[in-house]
Predict the structure.
Amino acid sequence: MLNIEIDGKPLEVEHGSTIIDAADAAGIAIPRFCYHKKLSVAANCRMCLVQVEKFNKPLPACATPVADGMKIYTRSKAAVEAQQSVMEFLLINHPLDCPICDQGGECDLQDIAVAYGASGSRYTEEKRVVFNKNIGPLVSTDMTRCIQCTRCVRFLKEVGGMQELGMVGRGEHAEITAYVDQSVNSELSGNIIDLCPVGALTSKPFRYSARSWELTRRSSIAPHDGLGSHIEVHVKDHKVMRVLPREKESINECWLSDRDRFSYEGLNSPDRLKVPMIKHNGQWQETDWKTALEFAAGQLKDITKQYGGDALGVLVSPNSTMEEGYLIKQLSEGLGCGNVDYRLRQTDFRLDGKRTGTPWMGCNIQEIEELDRILLIGSNIRNEHPLLAQRIRKAVANGAELCIVSPLDNDPLMDVAHKVIVRPNDMVNVLGQILKAMSGLQKLSLCLPPTLNTLLEEIKVRPNTQKIAECLAGISEELILIAPKVGIFLGNMALSDPRFTEMYSMAEAIGGITGAKGGILPPAANSTGMHLMGVMPSATGMHARAMIEVPRKAYLLLNIEPELDCQHAALATDAMAKAECVIALTAYKSAALENADILLPIAPFTETSGTFMSMEGRVQSFQAVTRPLGECRPAWKVLRVLANTLGLNGFDYNSSEEVKNKIFHGEKPSALVWRSLNNNLKELVEIQINIKKEGLQRIGEVPQYESDPIVRRSPPLQKTKYNIRPMARMHADQLTELGLQDGDLVVAYQDKGSALLKVRLDNHVAKGCVRVAAAHPLTAGLGDLMGDITIEKASTEHAALYEKQLTEMA
Amino acid sequence: MAEQTTKMATRKSSSAKKAARPVVMTDLTGQTLVTLRTLNEKNPASLATYEKLGGYAQLKRLVTEKIKAPEIINQVKVSNLRGRGGAGFPTGLKWSFMPRYYDGTKYLVCNTDEGEPGTFKDRDIIRYNPHQLIEGMAIAAYTLGARVGYNYIHGEIWQDYEIFEAALAEAREAGYLGENLFGSNFSFDLYAVHGYGAYICGEETALIESIEGKKGQPRFKPPFPASYGVFGKPTNVNNTESYASIPWIMQHGGQAFADLGVPNSGGSKLFSVSGHVEKPGNYEIRMGTPFKELLEMAGGIWKGRQLKAVIPGGPSTAVMPARAIENATMDYDGLSKAGSSLGAGSMIVMDDTTCMVKTLKRLSYFFYEESCGQCTPCREGTGWVYRIIERIVDGKGKMEDLDLLTDLSNNISGRTICALGDAAATPVLSFIKHFRPEFEYYIQHGKSMVDGK
């Protein structure tokens, strides 16, 4: 520790900290623009100049390390003069028109100018004008306002992983710009809006819609991925105007993914269902809650009475709250129905009943930064969990080595030490190779079950998998670690794969040998919570896949659009069409719910209270930030009244808080979580190492801006370059083999369904695979996300049909 | 060379013209001096010429006799050699900052990016005596343990760059560069890097960024290049003339070099004399030579006019009115006492027909255009200053502009990342200080006191 003095205040600070760190910790305000605690130090704005004893020039507080005995003056004559002169320089070319600037009222430059600027300007020469850049649908630019602090440049390079903005030109001609004719495509791009200390980068969707002081700021939890990012929802006149990150170092730090930031635009979608609706003779009719609930209850009662509880299928969105999950589970039990499931995009349920607890990510989000070796299995991490990718990027920047086993070779925007890009079918074998190689590298004799040992015997370890095994064991070209901290994670593609059990078992075995942390990366906001609540089939019940495979007489849907949210779109559509009655609790009225019979309007996360449990087991409750739209009601209330109408007991909850208390039995949530989270398997499941199957395999990835009903309706996110309509993407070799070319029209067949798709050359796809995005109307006729697929060249009639489809979609 | 010049027509510089080059390599005593030793030879830039004059003998001696680094550094310290790029930092002391033991590659960088108006001395070193620079760098590399070196050459001089590349090829061929030199375990690879003509790349950390392939922008110091230089590795950066002085120092000893000059300013120095003199060019003279002698060597003020002012070390040094410089000596202390500084020795002489207001406009335009734009005071301030002076020259000046200019220059100076801010402020402050009545006249009458236009 060093002893220093700032403005006469003696302080003890850590060795290596800068003056600004010390001042911030002591609550001494030093103005700054370019400095940001999460970015590299640029020292270019010069606003933080302070006087330091024994130095004849003022020094930038952000870039000056403290030394023992240093005496710093932040408000002395010399310091203030320096700060004022910098302020004057910053303002000469900056437009002084705060009243028409979108940043007005929340602008660092404006605030600091009040404190350090003069009341008038001495500048009478011509001002600089900089042309605006179009950097995409999310961030609006007003480049004349830019003060060249380069926070945006550094963010995209250091945090985003790719330098998509840069400063070109010299001196006064210097300006921030993207690559020629390119937009900023980072999935974290919205953060540059927060970082920009002036009105140069503002939110395009929010621009000119409200003033910061008109907004009520309410805390909430982001509902689109498993991180549970903390957000601040800004509301005006009961309407969500924008979403900003709320700082939480251990989860989202001070960042937010674009999905979490801009999805709110979907809340104000014209698709929102405002009143209950019942289908009479094929026609939708608006109705009141009482009629709707009584009708729904009557239907449920009739069908379960007539065919038994088993005739009902209950499909629950993993983005729904724990309270909603609990109540729907109770309600199903009350109807004698064991067919409840939240795992809509899963197809392999062989591990059911074999788990010792609730699967989770196996470590805390923050711990990822400290890992030395990371193995990602079947995950396009930037697409699935953008901020988790950012943590891994940090780990890699700190020297961690990242290994990837995946059917997709998408650039994670960080160095990848080793990767194996193969068909999902072959991933199991690759993992087996790693396991076998690992066992050879261990000093101890391997204690694998004899069955597994026998399986491994047939496997031949290839050089690249040997490398991964060595890497995980700590051997590296750079530095050999004796006991590296290893993390092994399974992503969405692994979770949706029919060989998930094999992948999971292998990962667990590799993890056991390496002493790795890790587990699955649950895709949705409350996947872990739903598992903990047991929103899963009873011992005799059907899982999500079985429920659509063997159509039920009736379905109760919570917060889902079956053909877009289910593993097998064609089966889901078919099952809904065949059912006598489909009751959907939904925030949206959509084409995907055309086969429903009763629509009950429920409140999305901003209009209801509830609890999510994140992938790291964090139980986080939130309140409604605005009142429900129209006749919408919180789903927990709807479920409670529906249960009451059904005459079921034990549903007399007056608040979601009461439901939560019931869930946790009044205990601290963390206590239950601590007891419940466990990735271990009770017993080994019979697995198969070699899956020899000819033919093509589909990689049905869910694009990040199609992941749930809210995101699907956010216009700005839909306008980003990530939102391109599904195509049949294949490796060049694959195209040659099939005699196809980029741009050809093909028919993709899965089971009985098909889809018309354009071919796209994509060398990021493993050979033997076709990447066809899911959760899109164009692919709603297809089957399993990771299932077998056949591709045929389309006829001329198909071409006309395809054009028609596109027009309809537009 | 001629074909190459046409090939590179788009990048041709003044050096491509067949300009008269009245370079004088001796002082009035006629003694042969240090950095342009080969000048009077037939093929001054060739290896044979340099070897004939004893070239590379010092490198060979130091390497084969395994002379220890501290001994070499000590000689450089004794020589009183101070950085010839303008800052005048003692070279020996700078060398002692390089970490002796370092697990990795250390780098050596030569700054031949002279871009300030009136500076053209380093160009003549690589044009006429490139091997002395190469030998100097190799000795420095041997002393400092650098494995790789770069000579960063200003973007606007192409022919000279080619001459240097040719010299490098010769030196490699002759075994003065490369692996295991003279059968020792000392290896040194030297490369030339051609810049793109940005003045800012003459700032050592911007130069390093540029070598790394990035936009030339100064880095914040500390850390200094000695601990974090090229590719983040320890790097020693010196000026061309500094390195080129080393072989002479090694040959004759540090004391002999120091004795060429005066206390605190060792050796000889190249002065680029330009402006209103009869014989502009580079003059290598002993440190401490009276100004008058240098002016006499340059043929005196042209056209029989009177001396008005001198910028002694390049525009980043303060202008001196005739009375202030007339009795000054050309060395660090002498010019400092007289109210300016030696800088890079780029002496711009102005006769009595020179309008100081218009001169300042041109100089501030240079700094305005060459500011890198990274930090606020320089980016914004240089443009503001230039615009005010431009307005004065346009006849729209206001009396309060002079105080504003002074104030703004003081606000730029000392508050920027690198010294370009200080450099931009110095001419403004010194011109107004010494020639204020001329500025006031211009503002009052809307025209120049000197030429009436």
